[in-house]
Amino acid sequence: MMKRHAPLFFLLVAASAPGILRAQEVEAISVWGRRANEIGRATSASEGKVSYSDFAARPLLRPGELIEAVPGLAATQHSGAGKANQYFLRGFNLDHGTDLAASLDGAPLNLPSHGHGQGYLDLNILTPEFVHDISFRKGPYAAENGDFATAGAVAFETADHLHGDGVQAWTGDHAYYRAVGSKGVTDNVLVAGDITRSRGAWSTPEDLRKINLLGRALVRGWSITALAYDAKWNATDQIPRRAVEDGMLGRLDAIDPTDGGTTSRYILSARRRDLLRGLDAVVYVQRYKLDLYSNFTYFLEDPIHGDQFEQADQRWIYGGSLTKRWSLGDGWSARTGVSARVDDIGKVGLYRTIARARLRTVRQDALTEWSTAVWGEASRRFGKLDATFGLRADAFGADVSAGYPRNAGTVSDAQLSPKLALAWRVSRRFELYADAGRGFHSNDARGAVITVDPVTGDPARRAPLLSPTDGAELGLRLKRGGLSLTAAAWTLHVDSELVYVGDSGFTEAAGATQRRGVELLADWRPTSTLSLTGSWAGTHARFTNGDRIPNAVDSVVSAGATWKPRPTSTLSLTYRRLGAAPLIEDDSVRSRPTSLLNALIVQDIGRASLMVEILNLTNGKGDDIAYFYASRLPGEPAGGVDDVHFHPVEPRALRVGLKINL
């Protein structure tokens, strides 16, 4: 299953008034589990909800892969296990979260103006056993979803009572050890923990140490939750293909063995449903830290010391939201909401390092970034047609105190985002959908006030603080017996993909883009003991000038099967194929498709369960991710060598676990 370890104590989240998605959403599209009939309730073909029973038996290499329960969404890794995953959805290389919003119990997880990348989304904070359900919506069609929710939004919810008291112990290949446990202290108080240590499959020991601690109390209708996450690891980053083909490196080798990092996140939140009639509330405070050491170009910029750099981020996050449900009469209903958030970023920096020791500061800044939003949507049924009209207003601002005064300043921006969702219930088993809306992602505030490139000293081009996105979608849903089919055709236009490049410390203009695609989803229960699911998502992605978008994957295929030959036995298989993608704009260099097959066998023995997990069952040797750029190894030309740099999928691994229900 998962992993965890490192030192520190607790704190978490118990929020979700508005949440990021509603619990009324579309069909669960994981790779197993029960499916509710969403016809008559969903507002689009690409929204859904996955319950714990749907993913409880899902084999997972990393916690972030839990997000692959969302059809068409893939999570990979190009560095150490403590770093945020790389996400792919609807033709976006979402980097570490730029166009994918996520929340945990109503508390946002994306981090704006982050030291490593805008919207940084680290899902290592999740423990799968603590998650109760996952809701998702793709596209910018929901009024309640704001920053980063352009390709989609995902809401993770934990349970007030988890899934029963119990303890788990795991061991496996590559010195993998994990312990998980939860206990209800009283009817209203629970505590839980997840600790992992792993050497990893790499030649340089990853030495992952990670811990997640969770505490929750129900007090006078409020759910108070505290979560603590802390991790430390060494990283084997992507390596150049030429070095492997020449025999200089093995697939699992590292060039700079001192890459890696430390991170922590503590969240304390409170949620109250029906605080007043139809009013939900959530408030939260978070503390976050990251020190990340990477070296992607080796000796290109500094032939003496090497090109390792450190990215640091330290911040407090404060915020909350209110959501109100209204009955307006004459068949109309409404939902309205307000939210506010402040990121007090005490330090965000980029430094040149050697073996994690700082050589010089490229830039170090402090900033305060705030955002507020007001949104509403009104719904009414006109015969067989359900119509939802939405409108969202967002305001953002930031005050940047830069280490280099010419890059300091204040900036603000606002956006109005209309939304429309139509659902035509043709019959009890068949429904059609049409959705349209405007969304956005924010850009790094430092890039919005910058005047001088901190590396070259040249004048720098500023990025807009907000980058709008317009999208539309047509879809259908058909349910007949044990078979559920969903299809969607969508289009998405992004005005500007200008982003702050944390690895270099400057703003890069990527231009406007246009994406369109088709998604097909199927869920079939041929018998009471067998559940089959499959999804295919194909995307056509281009810059508006016709160039290809690097790392825009053209297809994602996922499938799964869960079979219960006996009430006490379960066999689960998952398959995911990440298609090829252009690595440069002219499409002359492309990545290779990668397929992965995982398996999990669970045998109940009285109060205990024996679990056997086989990851990368076929021992495939594909790439988890690939990039094309110039790097330099010792002895190579000063200008470096253009090459594909890849991070391999981890080799086959066997893990065995024992769970005891208390």
User: Mean pLDDT across all residues, rounded?
Assistant: 90
Number of helices: 3
Strand pairing plus helix content: what structural class?
A: mainly beta
Low-confidence stretches: 1-36
Strand content: over 45%
> Care to count the β-strands?
35
Overall geometry comes to globular
Helical content (DSSP H or I, runs of 4+) = under 10%
Note the main sheet. 22 strands, antiparallel, barrel
Measured distance between first and last alpha carbons: 20 Å
Query: Radius of gyration, Cα only, in angstroms?
Result: 24 Å
Multimer state? single chain
Can you walk me through this structure?
- It is a single chain.
- The chain is an all-beta fold.
- The protein contains 3 helices and 35 strands.
- The strands form 5 sheets. It has a 22-stranded antiparallel β-barrel. The chain has a 5-stranded mixed β-sheet with strand order 1-7-8-5-6.
- β21 (about 410-425) and β22 (about 430-440) form a beta hairpin.
- The model is unreliable at about 1-35 (pLDDT under 50).
